[in-house]
Amino acid sequence: STRTATVALNTQRIVSDISPLIFGGFAEHMGRCIYEGIYDPKSPLADERGFRPDVMKALKDLNYRIMRYPGGNFVSGYRWTDGIGPKADRPRRRALAWRSIETNQFGPHEFMEFAEELKTEPMWAVNLGTGSIQDAADLVEYMNLPTGTHFSDLRAKNGHKDPYGVKYWCLGNEMDGPWQIGHLDAVAYADKAVEAAKLMRWMDPTIKTIACGSSNTAMPTFPEWDRVVLERTYDHIDYFSMHYYVGNPNMNSKEAVDTDSYLASSVHFDEHAETVAAAIRLAKAHTRSRKDVGLCWDEWNVWYREVGGDGNWEEAPHILEEVYTLEDALVVAQWLSTFLRKADIVRIACIAQIVNVIAPIMTRADGLFLQTIYHPLMMFSQHAAGNSLDVLVRAPTHETRKFGEVSLLDVTASHDPATGKGAAFLVNRSQTEALEVTVKWEDVAPDALTQAWQMTGRDPMATNSFEQPEAVTIHTINPPALNAGTATLTLPPLSFTVLTSQHT
Length: 504
Ligand code: AHR
Prior knowledge:
- This protein is α/β, with parallel strands linked by helices.
- It folds into two domains: 2-11 and 388-502, Golgi alpha-mannosidase II (Immunoglobulin-like); 19-383, Glycosidases (TIM Barrel), CATH 3.20.20.80.
- The chain has helices spanning 53-61, 108-118, 133-144, 150-157, 186-203, 224-233, 259-262, 265-286, 326-341, 374-383, and strands spanning 2-9, 14-17, 24-26, 66-69, 93-95, 100-102, 121-126, 168-171, 208-211, 239-246, 294-302, 314-315, 346-352, 361-364, 367-370, 387-389, 392-394, 397-400, 404-407, 409-416, 421-428, 434-441, 448-456, 475-477, 486-491, 495-502.
- The strands form six sheets. The protein has an eight-stranded parallel beta barrel with strand order 3-4-7-8-9-10-11-13, surrounded by six helices. It has a seven-stranded antiparallel beta sheet with strand order 2-16-20-21-26-23-24, covered by helices on one side.
- It is globular, with a radius of gyration of 23 Å.
- The two termini are 38 Å apart.
- It binds alpha-L-arabinofuranose.
- Alpha-L-arabinofuranose binds at residues 28, 30, 71-73, 173-174, 215, 299, 352-353.
- Residues 28, 30, 71-73, 173-174, 215, 299, 352-353 line the site of alpha-L-arabinofuranose.
- It is an enzyme of class 3 (hydrolase).
């Protein structure tokens, strides 16, 4: 059946500017993300640097503006000095987080080359697990100082005379998790993070620092961890991180499959962002600070399977190689909607991860396929720009077990006053009902609706594979006709639709 809905857009009714850094990725030394993912010298497709043009092209189309590296749990046992100098001399080590072997053939210089090629801002995590505050400061010295000191001269000797100027620095990773190598309680972590930030800034006062928030809402320490860490670090940080993964069922819960609730996930994403933003506000008041701290959602994605035991001290083990479904793609679309709806607070976000490990791209030596979740990510990162609009939506609702009554329609929109380009992103969450949606531009009608795309299917569990790489993809559709500032389009059940516009 088909039901009706209306959406009102107004280019003057603005949530906030959109930080381009919400379109970020995360590359960890984990499984086949780095090795056999972005760095695959044994592949017949690899270039002389070990990068594969097919992987690079798929990554470039995602238009990532920031890339977090090198972990993740990996970083809490990582010695960055292992990854520099002649490759033949670099040590092989046990990577304790993932029970694998780290060859160190890919390190700081290789990552910077990769980031430069992608034209993406690097975001480095320092090791606050086994690492010292001195190691963290040494890394800033190595990456960012002009030559003339021990580590900056070493960088020049290793082939890069100019400072890299890495701006974004994560003060450890998920230090609230008992699984973390060198896990600390909130007070001990906050104190170490402050001392690390002080030393790192003495090296380079222009850097931006990010403190660890809770790894997920299921942590017994959530949100107390966040309150304590924020109060103690507030004056030393620019961003506060949050991590969250979902699934149907959620990996952290013993719940049964519940598709209607899963397809309403952005209700929870919105709420989670607001909770952490409230903790940030509280810390600002508590510390009498005048500055703001942004939210850095630097790990987010759909995740189902257990990691444990898969890696058995092998190089590049196949771990966490999720294959995503249509319903996962609709949830990823809603996650990106949350980033737009909360654009005033979410200032950085990184999908975890970028290749093979819980990722939008799956590779093997002779090729790759794009996962279902690739498509919404590409749509948002290519078309959402300028301001996020405060959208008014009137749509039918349905009852979900987890979130009560939820709108069938999730909509966000952007408008860039600099270019006149607009975009609307619409998810029909219903598994059975089509929605006929009338979109109205309230202040000024666009000159034209320029393009439209739609991703849909009958089976929420449909996936892509090497054999059927485009079983679930996004197709261009004809943009609807524009009539006196309104347009009507039909959204099939289980669908994601994008509509772009041009304004004078
Ligand atoms: O992204 C996979 C892992 O998830 C990261 O290493 C860790 O930070 C999180 O628990």
